[in-house]
Specification:
The complex is a heterotrimer of chains A (375), B (355) and C (92). With 375 residues, chain A is of the alpha/beta class. In chain A, α1 runs parallel beside α10 and α2 runs parallel beside α14. Chain B has a 7-stranded mixed beta sheet with strand order 10-12-8-13-11-14-15. In chain B, strands 1-2-7-5-6 form a 5-stranded mixed beta sheet, covered by helices on one side. A two-stranded antiparallel sheet of chain B has the order 3-4. Chain C is built from 1 helix and 5 strands, in the order βββββα. Chain C has a 5-stranded antiparallel beta sheet with strand order 3-2-1-4-5, with no helix packed on it. Classes of the chains: A alpha/beta (375), B alpha+beta (355), C alpha+beta (92). Chains A and B meet through α1, α2, α4, α14 and α15 of A and α1, α2, α8, β14 and β15 of B. β9 of chain B pairs antiparallel with β3 of chain C.
Chain lengths: 375, 355, 92
């Protein structure tokens, strides 16, 4: 596969790893946060940490849009889905995310009509095919996914489709990064920046991280060599005493992003004054809602939703994990009470969550495994 | 022991605890072949039916020279590229017997039909069952028919049971794998699951040259057992629901060994790979209906591979890994990138993801 | 956080200019290219696909220069290893 396989080459990884090791000052430990859950997935799926020297730790950030959906919003979505005549649609990622009253899968078992779609346009297609039903798309995702939802609403408006609406849960990445940077117990040396969000928002919005906080950020692609190279570029900056925004993923990310995508988001959606993030709490200006002009396509206006809050369980230490203060296995309930089958906290709910990724892919002692995997 | 290792030990203890069904209602995950299915079987079915023949939870039960198995078939759509529910229902049960090292002989077929189901479709299904039975050398010797009201079923469900002649000396068992053994897959993985997923049409993805791998494997297993001396084939499993990953986790768990896979060595056709990349799923968890995993003594690995490759259904066979001693119960994957990760059992179906 | 996959445009649909047929490893899907307004897309171009939409056109020149960098590091590494071996032989 072009643009994929060449970025999974083990020999190039070993060469880059040698450079990374050489850049580490003796006795110094480095912590880099990969903001994006897609990077977390890449790191574990390819066993990338095996190439990193022990001085370099990767901290898994808040960029999993499924993980950060608060339980109350899942309950609201299920409330809509259980109304007579409704077909609820969403991505496969949402199906097992637990709310206070179980997940979509549980709601389906109780009789709700919930369907998995690959694209929001597929949800619109279902609406066309079922004119007598109200089809709701549970929209999740960062700026990467929001333009697709906005385009779908614009299409529905153009076609005059009256039985389609969006339950909007889109979130924005910059306020979350800022919340993490402002947390007092944080110690990070730099950031691996979210590649696909940046195809939309570009690289400029990260400027304040280098300017005001003095931390490097390298926008990175999603193949393992991309991530390894962005660690290298972070270390080169630190070695040179610099902090700048760099774009490792220039093959996909234009420096200024995608203006058309930003324009359609802005046409259909506006910032919410505040939104609750699971594990991080309320963050100002961190999510999007449908504008008044498109009220006919806004499930929050069409349906009367309870909007209840469900507090995260006390035992859960996801907030600390998301900020990189704790490693997943340092949480008290990790792997015993909280597992992918019975997730308690946000980081365990999606395969991109830091805890789920560690549990599913990395739950072994590297020293013991060295012997088993020796050839 | 480091504190991380202590946590890992604690987790392994938690994983060995007796499973408990937490849900109040059956969800689709209970039928997906992953952890939820396993929990349901152990906590509900095994709890009620417990006996020494059932307890190994193998593909079938073997008592002396007799092997017996059953399976139900529900698939949407009923007809898909490369097969239909009819040949699935024959091949699946034939394969379960073959995985016990048995020679399949007789099948039963029970049909649950929905009011309004076209007779022409039923005829198409039975014709394809007959053809599959002929190809596998078995006869459908008994059966049953029930019709339910419109809306109470999805067209046609089929349950088949099969009996076969087993060789008690073969000693095939998921608990028989030993460190050093080779792990062989009989061909490229994931073709059935991806074909059916795309045939449903909802994803809008087309794959012109992709067909289901549904096939009877009894000819292949007979060749393999013949080519290896007695006891050298430790275990055979067809990689159906849950795919190769789930089957190998069973071997690692029952045999208390580690399974070490080489990502580079696992055969996956480009179209399966493309569809899996688009949907964000891992071919290791996608169902096959005509592929098996053989765990073979390393001294017989060459002979086993040659025997498989000499058969048309095993032409794409490959050694994909080996059994190691430690850490017991885990399936490890050495990635093409030069790292290592775990391959765990999924909770339910591999769901398409966007993130 | 967002699964994006590179695919190659094989056809721009004549009746729907906002849709392109895109090939990923032999499987094909209609992808909405409405977000790439202003890009002159033609068959053979590679795009990044996310939930049925093209988010960006892949820049072949940037891809090549990134690969050249990775290859130069790989080459330098091999040269160093070779030099190390040589010096060990000479010392031995």
């Amino acid at each position: 596969m072009r643009f994929v396989d060449e970025y999974r080459d083990a020999d190039k990884a070993r060469a880059l790893a040698a450079r990374i090791a050489a850049l580490c000052e003796p006795g110094r430990a480095y912590k880099f946060m990969e903001v994006c859950g897609g990077h977390t997935h890449t790191i574990y799926k390819h066993g990338l940490e095996d190439h990193l020297p022990s001085a370099v730790t990767l901290v898994h950030g808040p960029g999993c849009p499924v993980c950060v959906i608060p339980m109350g919003r899942v309950d609201d979505a299920i409330h809509i889905a259980e109304r007579p005549g409704v077909i609820m649609t969403s991505f496969g990622d949402m199906m097992r995310v637990p709310g206070g009253r179980g997940s979509f899968l549980d709601a389906m078992a109780r009789g709700a009509d919930i369907r998995m779609v690959y694209s929001p346009l597929d949800a619109l297609k279902i609406a066309r095919e079922h004119p007598g039903r109200q089809v709701v798309f549970m929209a999740i995702g960062f700026e990467t996914t929001a333009p697709s939802t906005a385009m779908t609403v614009l299409r529905a408006a153009a076609e005059g489709i009256g039985n389609f609406s969006v339950f909007c849960n889109h979130v924005t990445i910059i306020p979350a990064i800022k919340a993490i940077l402002d947390s007092p117990d944080l110690r990070l040396d730099g950031f691996i920046g979210p590649g696909h969000v940046s195809t939309v928002i570009g690289c400029r919005p990260y400027g304040f991280i280098a300017r005001d906080y003095g931390k490097p950020l390298v926008v990175a692609g999603f193949e393992p060599l991309d991530v390894l190279q962005s660690v290298y570029q972070n270390l080169v900056q630190l070695a040179g005493g610099r902090a700048a925004v760099e774009n490792q993923y220039a093959r996909v990310v234009p420096w200024d992003g995608n203006p058309k995508a930003l324009a359609v988001i802005n046409e259909v959606m506006e910032l919410r004054p505040h939104f609750e993030w699971r594990g991080l709490g309320f963050i100002s200006d961190s999510a999007l809602r449908v504008r008044e002009a498109y009220a006919a396509f806004d499930a929050e206006r069409i349906f009367d939703i309870p909007g209840g809050r469900v507090a995260d369980p006390k035992a859960c230490q996801c907030g600390e994990v998301l900020k990189g203060v704790l490693k997943p296995w340092e949480c008290k309930v990790f792997g015993t009470a909280c597992t992918p089958e019975t997730p308690i906290g946000t980081c365990m709910v999606s395969s991109e969550g830091a805890c789920a990724a560690y549990y599913n892919f990395g739950r072994f002692s590297r020293d013991r495994v060295k012997e088993a995997t020796r050839t | 022991m480091s504190s991380e290792e202590q946590v890992l030990e604690r987790i392994e203890r938690a994983r060995r605890r007796k499973p408990r069904v937490r849900e109040e209602l059956i969800t689709l995950a209970h039928g997906a072949g992953g952890k939820a299915t396993r929990t349901l079987i152990e906590a509900v079915f095994l709890e009620s039916f417990r006996n020494p023949l059932l307890e190994p939870l193998a593909d079938g039960a073997v008592d002396g020279g007799l092997a017996f198995t059953t399976d139900s078939y529900v698939v949407t759509p009923l007809f898909f590229p490369g097969g239909d529910i009819g040949d699935l229902a024959v091949n699946g049960t034939v394969n379960d017997l073959a995985m016990c090292g048995a020679r399949p002989a007789y099948l039963s077929a029970a049909f649950i039909l929905e009011e309004g189901f076209p007779i022409a479709d039923l005829r198409r299904i039975t014709e394809s069952m007959a053809a599959a039975a002929r190809a596998a050398g078995v006869a459908v010797v008994t059966g049953d028919t029930k019709v339910v009201q419109r809306g109470k079923a999805d067209g046609c469900y089929i349950t088949t049971a099969g009996v076969g002649m087993a060789d008690p000396a073969a000693g095939l068992s998921a608990s028989a794998a030993e460190p050093g053994d080779a792990i062989i897959v009989s061909g490229p993985i994931g073709e059935h699951g991806v074909t059916v997923m795309l045939a449903r049409g909802g994803l809008g993805i087309e794959a012109a040259d992709l067909v289901s791998d549904t096939a009877p494997l009894n000819g292949l297993t007979a060749r393999l057992l013949e080519a290896c001396d007695g006891g050298r084939v430790r275990c055979l499993r067809d990689a159906t629901r849950g795919g190769v990953a789930t089957v190998l986790n069973e071997v690692a768990g029952y045999s208390e060994v580690a399974v070490v896979l080489e990502e580079d060595a696992i055969p996956v056709r480009p179209a399966v790979r493309g569809a899996c990349e688009l949907l964000g799923i891992d071919p290791l968890y996608v169902a096959c209906e005509g592929r098996m995993i053989a765990v073979v003594d390393q001294r017989s690995a060459g002979a086993a591979l040659a025997a498989l490759r000499a058969h048309p259904l095993g032409a794409g066979a490959a050694v994909i890994g080996r059994i190691a001693e430690d850490p017991p119960g885990l399936v490890l994957l050495k990635t093409a990138f030069g790292g290592t990760r775990i391959v765990d059992v999924l909770v339910g179906d591999p769901l398409p993801r966007i993130c | 956080m967002c699964l994006g996959i590179p695919g190659e445009i094989v056809e721009i649909l004549s009746d729907r200019p906002d849709l392109a047929k895109v090939d990923v490893c032999g499987v094909r899907r209609a992808i909405n290219i409405g977000l790439l307004e202003g890009e002159a897309l033609v068959p053979g171009d590679w795009i990044l696909i996310h939930v049925g939409f093209a988010l960006s056109k892949i820049d072949e020149a940037e891809a090549k220069s990134a690969m050249d960098f990775l290859e130069s590091i790989g080459q330098a590494y091999e040269d160093e290893i070779a030099a190390l071996r040589q010096s060990m032989i000479e010392q031995g």
